[in-house]
Predict the 3D structure of the following.
Amino acid sequence: MNIRSNPDTTRPAVTTGALPASRKIFATPEAAPDLRVPLREIILSEGAGEPNLPVYDTSGPYTDPAVTIDVNTGLPRNRLAWVKERGGVEEYEGRVIKPEDNGNVGAAHAAKAFTAHHKPLRGLDGHKITQLEFARAGIITKEMIYVAERENLGRKQQLERAEAALADGESFGASVPAFITPEFVRSEIARGRAIIPSNINHAELEPMIIGRNFLTKINANIGNSAVTSSVEEEVDKMVWAIRWGADTVMDLSTGRNIHTTREWILRNSPVPIGTVPIYQALEKCNGDPVQLTWELYKDTLIEQCEQGVDYFTIHAGVRLSYIHLTANRVTGIVSRGGSIMAKWCLAHHKESFLYTHFDEICDIMRKYDVSFSLGDGLRPGSIADANDRAQFAELETLGELTKIAWDKGCQVMIEGPGHVPMHKIKINMDKQLQECGEAPFYTLGPLTTDIAPGYDHITSGIGAAMIGWFGCAMLCYVTPKEHLGLPDRNDVKTGVITYKIAAHAADLAKGHPAAQLRDDALSRARFDFRWEDQFNLGLDPDTAKNFHDETLPKEAHKVAHFCSMCGPKFCSMKITQDVRDYAATLNDREQGMAQMSAKFKEMGSDVYLDAEKVKESNRVL
Amino acid sequence: MNIRSNPDTTRPAVTTGALPASRKIFATPEAAPDLRVPLREIILSEGAGEPNLPVYDTSGPYTDPAVTIDVNTGLPRNRLAWVKERGGVEEYEGRVIKPEDNGNVGAAHAAKAFTAHHKPLRGLDGHKITQLEFARAGIITKEMIYVAERENLGRKQQLERAEAALADGESFGASVPAFITPEFVRSEIARGRAIIPSNINHAELEPMIIGRNFLTKINANIGNSAVTSSVEEEVDKMVWAIRWGADTVMDLSTGRNIHTTREWILRNSPVPIGTVPIYQALEKCNGDPVQLTWELYKDTLIEQCEQGVDYFTIHAGVRLSYIHLTANRVTGIVSRGGSIMAKWCLAHHKESFLYTHFDEICDIMRKYDVSFSLGDGLRPGSIADANDRAQFAELETLGELTKIAWDKGCQVMIEGPGHVPMHKIKINMDKQLQECGEAPFYTLGPLTTDIAPGYDHITSGIGAAMIGWFGCAMLCYVTPKEHLGLPDRNDVKTGVITYKIAAHAADLAKGHPAAQLRDDALSRARFDFRWEDQFNLGLDPDTAKNFHDETLPKEAHKVAHFCSMCGPKFCSMKITQDVRDYAATLNDREQGMAQMSAKFKEMGSDVYLDAEKVKESNRVL
């Protein structure tokens, strides 16, 4: 790994290089042999006795040694051809960048502009533009073929090798197929149950899909604030976040240089980028929500559509009549977007312009295929406020808006809480599915207690794993700095790894047909004392190796058949191996362990592996 | 805080001093005015407009500035009088310490012996000794009065101030009363549904209770190994673990100096100490499980009973006939105790001596009131092995042994997994309650995925929170070093805080009547921008403050009405306050918000606060 090692100080340095014992490989979908779908192959040690493990790879070209990275030019714009070849779009001059787009920053504090300029595309009237429109028309796009291949991960071969079906989860009505076909992707998008956030102007994108019948995804938030941090830091945070597994990144920048920062991020991002346009709109009226207008907001939407933002958080569910429902809350309104709109509504004593102009917003976003992330501006900010009327009134409105956006041809997902104790999580998921016609749910946490500032990646990781199991499609990470300050690189990594754990635990519990392959490979490595394989198969090989080396630093120990927990003469795994050897000998003498095993199977030894028994246990709950 | 600041290098230094903005206070139970039950009071800032918050305090005299700590003499032995005054015990010479008790350590490597020697007590035939025996006889002991007061925490007053009942949880059959009375404690112990681990020789103990109708507890493991670490480090790890909230501590030392290390820990520990006696027994036969004998094990039990160990993990459920059930597992037997006994059983082709001598074990432990922690020697070590026949066969045997131990008058809890995906957690809890007559469950994690070595405090914290909600009484922590190495001080703290989060999240979800008081106090502080109060009400004030100061170090910022997430002109909480002010004005003008609120209530605005709705949502699950 090369951390910020670029000797050329005139361009921002970012982290490049492969993860330990990993190489980038590419799959070629049968349906579109010109596509190259990236995977990461984890290379096992010699003598592992099993094949290398391919895993999903969000990291983009940054981990590909064959690619020379130059953030000044940005990533290759491969997707431009896909968009153009299906037609229905036009290139045009685009909106002129105004000083207010960067908060009227003076020359002294202006960030360096991104070098290249790409003219934007927009959809032509009377043509299909969005993935939803293509899907409904029965057309399979390259984006759909790409994500189908990506979700399968090359695990098809591995599953075929596996003796039995691995999936015995409880999916709560989700139906993850054994293999994902492009047609399945199309049908899920047509149904509104999945989205591929993919602005036609984000040509650097490696498409991915969000929906409860696919792998659970995670989002990482980055963004400078008025108080601290720089453009360069934000680009590197994006690269760093996707290195560890962020599926999408939200740029939540405020203050000056917003437009420029976003341009650098988009031109260098292989993952979908989300924003909250109201943040920039607010900057354009000097931070005073009362001064916001529909025209100003609309202009900001177009600005960001042209840049290539893939999804917008839009808090159109914060209606005038809901605001007073928050007055007696312990923590009022904690969403920034929600509070801005609440103040605007009250100041003018008018319905939110996001709600009254929702049709027009749809028309704009459709032209670029920007997906909706309908924001939960009234989400609870404390355990005390969870599942209250304000929260659920807004959710009902989001359901109403989902149908309008779908009618307009737009892709939609729905944002969710927040702070929610464990016993109130499931009702959130159930109600979201019901109100919003199974549009993908995208939740922040939820945090399951308020009492651990500094550890909210953990309070929320618990809730995230649970709601992911219950059907949430994407989990927005929370870092250890939540409520306290801006995350740095270490915090971003901790947040991403924590949420990869939550998402994977959810996939296992849902019964994703291939999720357990990685657990099993790692557990075999652990049991065989293949230390390096154990590190490399984990989510964070560097940390695992460092922790091991703190106690047993010598190379020899990494092949030794003991670990520091027990020491050389006292190791449970070693003893188990002895037990196995002994049992084998014993059984040769005593006419075969196989027979004994068979006998125990007759006695019902597998009863607790039975998926139905497990489901029954959860149903009682 | 004074970290290891003792200038006198001849005695081990440990961490003393109060937590930030905290003072030790004592409650005096009506039923026994001679008892002083410690609490920690978190002192809020002037102008907080609400009372200080008393919280449960596990830290012992180490956080009491009025006590001078000298680990050479140990803690005051207050409980000796309680035991003696109820009679039925005799003081005796006790077993002579043998060289093998410390692994035949030579003079060069011998740890310094603990200075004071206390003659042990043991129960006399025909007398009641254990808390279970007293409880069944309708006798309320001082230990019972003590824990009743401790569980109530002085929150009685606060609850009386609260306008409404706070508890709307889903308890899955647990029934936590609004207030804990000594009689309730007695009845739960008599029923076998709770235990007070309290060896009559652990006179330094501040008693605590483990059971699903009480606060969810956590355990921290410490212990040197053959490879690394010293006596001094282990004593300080114990003090450090209880400082952050460990309710019990297990000393899992192996190698040399085991007896001496344990003596130092016990004489300085205000919390129950648990051990796994087979570890020491194995050291006495040079690490060869085949050489173990009942006599050697029995002698070790008596040695540890006399020292004052409060609970023993005993793997008596690893029966000869279950061992081959593990042969096809991905990770075989991962419990150290389990693998030792498996090897012994196979080597001799005999039933486990722990099983065949179980009656005698009960008779020994009863004499000192050492509680059973019936070990899960066949727990799953990987997702692949969860809930298999080996695991559940053992659990059924633990149920059988529970009844035997109860008949003998012994207190019992049951250990549980291990590695279990989320959808298989509840069946573990359900089966344990059913097989073991509701004896308290004490689980390690469970870890909900295998793929994150270095982060197993998180993979397991998710499972721990869930099983705590479902009814688990005590959660054994997992540190970030799990599977990789021995935890250091930082790892111990991280493990403890993570498990305090899990236990508290469980209490909230179960509907513990007072759990939410702390969440609410912290959330109010957060919303009021009382930064110092927010830090101090959290589980780890130091970390929260440091994180805040990394971004906004100035003192002035800690009273400022904004945070670094948004900056001064763009803060959702500030805007919400504006919204509230505005709403109040508006409503004065428009004839009252109260009327509007009333109208919304009629419309069903409180429906989602209804506990029954929430429970229904979980039942569908």
